[in-house]
Amino acid sequence: MTDILTIARAQVLDEGVGLDREQALECLRLPGERLGELLAPAHEVRMKWCGPEVEVEGIVSVKTGGCPEDCHFCSQPGQFSSPVRAVWLRQLREPLDIVWSRPLPEGAEPSTVTVCKDASGRWFVSILVEETIRPLGPAEKRVGVDAGITALATLSTGETIANPKHERADRRKLARAQRDLARKAKGSANRQKARLKLARIHARITDRRRDFLHKLTTRLVRENQTVVIEDLTVRNMVKNHSLARAVCDASWRQMRAMLEYKTVWYGRELVVIDRWFPSSKMCSTCGTLQEKMPLAVRAWHCACGALHDRDVNAAINILAAGLAER
To answer: Is residue 325 pLDDT above 70, yes or no?
Structure first.
C-alpha cells in the first residue's frame, strides 16, 4: 500500500507517474480521511468531461463525505458546458466503466460528482445537475389509496395491487447467508466474503422494492390529479411483532415519501387524512359506522343491504374524506 500511496501522491502532484486501474481502485478503497490526506498536498484533482465532439478537462476541489468510502468532486459554476459522456479520475488512464442509468438533461452543467461504494461493494458515480421538471397536464381522475399487507394498495376504483413481498421471496437465501456469516471467524477473509454475500442479498431486496414503488407511485401520479392516502403510524405498527416484518417489507413510508415529492414535481395534489378516520368501519353507501371491524373480516354486509369488500370500501371512504378536507 505504501508504494501505491507514493505513486498516487506523485500523480496528484503532476510528477508524470501513472496508475493502472487496479492501483487506482485500491486508492479509492481508502477511508475518507486517508484519501483526503493523500490529496492534501495538491488540494485538487483533475477530472475530464468528454462531449460528443470536444473534450473538456477541468480542475475540481476534493471533499471527503460522511461515509468513509465517499469522495466528492466539486466544480466551479459554468466550468463544464459540454454534455457528459464519460468521466475520468486523475488516477485512471481510461474512463470509468460506467453503466448510465439515464442521460443527463440537455445543457446541464455538473456541479458535484460523488464517487461512493455501498455495503455490497458496488461503486456508484452520482452527478448533481439542476433540472427544471415540467408539470403534467391536468387529469380528471381522483383516487383514494388504502395501504395493506396482502394487497399493497387498494384503489377506490376497485383495483387491487398485489404485494410482491420482496423480503419474503428471498428469506431463505437471507437466513442461509446470515448463518454462514455467523460461523466465520471475526477478522478473517472468509468472513468478509460472507458479509459481502449477505449485503448483496439485502441490496437485491432493497433495489427490487424501490423499483416497484417507483413504478407504482409514478403511475398513480400520472393518471390522477388528486391522490388521497392515510396518515399511517408505521413506527407504532412495527411494535406488533406478528406484523412487524410484513409492515417493514411493505415499506408504506417510502411509498408516501415518493408520492409527496412526485406530486410536487408534476403539479398534482396529495391529501393525507387523519390517522383516526374510521375508513374500514364506515359504510361508503349510507355512512353507517360499525362498532367493531376485526382484521379477520375481509367482507361485510351493512344494514342498508350493501355488501362491501373491506379494502375497497376503505379506499372509497379515504377518497371522500380527502376531497371533503380540501
So the answer is: yes
